[in-house]
Amino acid sequence: MFKGIITRGLLALALVLVAGFTAAGAAEVKMTFYGNMHFRFVSNDGKVILINPWIKGNKDSTIGMDFYKKGEVDLILTTSGHGDDQGNALEIAAKTGATIFTVAELGSWMQSEIEKFGGTKKQIYRGAIGGRYKVGGVIAQLIQASHGSGAKSADGSPNPVYGGPASGVLLTFENGLKVLMAGSTGLSMDLQLFGMRFQPHIAMVPVMGRFMMGPDDAAYAAKLLMTGNPNLKTVIPHHTRVKGAAPWMGTADQFEAEVKKMGLSLAVLKPTPGKVYTLSK
User: Fold this and answer.
1) Nearest one of 179, 232, 178, 240 to 206, comparing CA atoms
2) Closest CA to 72 of 93, 54, 96
3) Is the pLDDT of residue 25 over 80?
4) Cβ distance 81 to 106 under 8 Å?
5) pTM of structure
């Protein structure tokens, strides 16, 4: 009798310990900001995804080109062909073996350029607005952005080639967390559609102004993204500069002030370059 009680007790204790270990050890989505629009995500299952990895010439970058090594990046997303958007995507892809997912026109140009860095054309996966690419259990979907796109050749050609439409991206992680990165966009009603259709938990919006939304428009964009969307709790400003900011450039602090002025019940995460953040629903 006592033996049975002890056995059942040990079994129950073992189940508690296993459950506790699982909860404590459950992987979460990690995000690191490296200045401007360069974001690094590590998914629940360890997939490494980069958005607009601009390092060379990025004064706020806390890393160098030797940071990303072979086999350490799974997917790279570029929202336009501009130098601060695609950044050093081709060189990083060639070095790490990562796939680049981007719109067809920019992708075709990238296929003609990546071999200059030692990569292969097969590393470029071309799509269009609405197109999706899956890496492990993470889904990346291209969304429209109101912006231009032109790319300059690695050989220094002064005439940019047409890069197709600019884009943003919706990332859906293994645990269902949805992060919408709006790209270098101006204000448009598309953002309301994104809130209603995709219902992201986290939204990343540009605040620099002049070539995209400024802080006040970005706050209104956050409001639009809340339309029919009970999930949105956190907004993250991007296209911000810490070093060498011009007077016309909007700041993360200005964006936060505009969000408060509008009375939006949203947390504003102003990421510090190089710091790792845990993202959750």
Assistant:
1) 240
2) 96
3) no
4) yes
5) 0.89
